[in-house]
Write a structure and sequence with these properties.
The chain is mostly beta strands. The protein is built from 2 helices and 14 strands. The strands form 4 sheets. Strands 7-14-8-11-12-13 form a 6-stranded antiparallel β-sheet, with no helix packed on it. It has a 4-stranded antiparallel β-sheet with strand order 5-4-3-6. Strands 1-2 form a two-stranded antiparallel sheet. A hairpin with a 6-residue loop joins strand 3 and strand 4. The protein is globular.
């Protein structure tokens, strides 16, 4: 019976997916405005919950890989029967119990969401809000994180792994742990067709183009370099 209910819940996954066509970098006249874009495959983007203000426990039913995100996405079933996709933290596996909300939870499991004020200093956090009820904005890519270096009841000082330091409200929500999929930095593209499927076209030097295509174009090969480097 439980297995039957489990597959029933998985059937609702398609309600959270939307087909998205990647832009070709052209305007309404068909002229290129953004270079190195176009001819991408159609992909479905997963609509995730960036707010997580339910104050409920939930179980991870399934872990999937979204084309438009580097971190893993989890399909969550909450205590009240609500289903949602969320960004997962590293170390969260299938059937793991996590908490979503702003209440203080002692010994909160990895991947749970809490207010910044309730999180210990120098603990790794991800999916951090910019201001209360804005939704997760910082540290969402694979392997990224931030740390609270100082805090009081009003403001907290956040340091990201990029070196940036931000002053946030202590009522902002954040997830415990690092963003999942740490091995993404070792991704090997292997062939040009992989990037073409993503909508990334080849990058060509301006000096080898024609004058109508780039300010550096034309001339007699490398014998006529541009006077000054300019952009198209």
């Amino acid at each position: 019976m439980l297995q039957k209910q489990y597959f029933v819940f998985l059937r609702f996954e398609k309600l959270f997916k939307k087909t998205l066509v990647i832009s070709s970098g052209r305007n309404y006249k068909g002229r290129i405005c953004v270079y190195h874009q176009g001819k991408a495959d159609k992909h479905q983007i997963i609509l995730i919950d960036r707010y997580r203000i339910l104050n409920l426990y939930g179980s991870v039913l399934r872990i999937v890989n979204d084309f438009f995100r580097t971190a893993f996405v989890g399909f969550i079933l909450y205590e009240n029967g609500l289903l949602n996709f969320i960004l997962l933290s590293e170390g969260v596996f299938k059937n793991t119990l996590i908490f979503s909300g702003g209440f203080k939870v002692f010994n909160a499991p990895l991947g749970s969401t809490q207010r910044v004020f309730f999180i210990k200093l120098f603990d790794s956090i991800n999916s951090i809000e910019k201001f209360p009820f804005s939704g997760a904005l910082f540290a969402r890519a694979a392997g990224t994180f931030g740390r609270i270096v100082s805090k009081n009841r009003i403001f907290s000082l956040l340091k990201l792994n990029s070196g940036w330091q931000l002053k946030l409200s202590s009522n902002c929500l954040a997830s415990l742990g690092l963003a999942s999929n740490l091995t993404h930095i070792f991704l090997n593209v292997r062939k040009a067709g992989v990037n073409r499927a993503r909508g990334i076209r080849p990058v060509v030097r301006g000096i080898v183009k024609n004058p109508c295509d780039h300010p550096h174009g034309g001339g007699e090969g490398k014998g006529s370099p541009p006077v000054a480097q300019v952009s198209p």
